[in-house]
Write a structure and sequence with these properties.
Length: about 140
Amino acid sequence: MESDTVPSEHQEEEYVLLDLDSVYTQLQIPPNAPYVLSGLDTMQPVLILDDKFKLIGQWDETIGTCLLFKEEVASPVVHEETGPSEANLFAGKCIVDQNQSPSKQVKPLGCAYRILKFRLAPDFDSPSTVSAQTQQVKL
């Protein structure tokens, strides 16, 4: 007797590394620029950065496992006076070193098995191309 199986509603997360190395030197991408990433289920996803730059992606498998980490600001180290001492002036008090610089803590986030490498869309004029064309027109 065969039974119909209902797919579980559990969705597995998959991390993908976005590689912008080939276009980073050509573009002035502001920090925290808004972006739209579409077509992740296609062979050539599209990334639009800051409503100005259109990039075309190409999937690439990683060699081995690419580990991903997230960085968090760690709470300051607190020293509490412990142990018996007749001259313990700080009993029950916590001491925080004010000269201590804020530290960061790195925690594992996941693994990526695929890389999405981006290049400029063929119909995109880079700022250097546009300025060169403008100079030619002025001459």
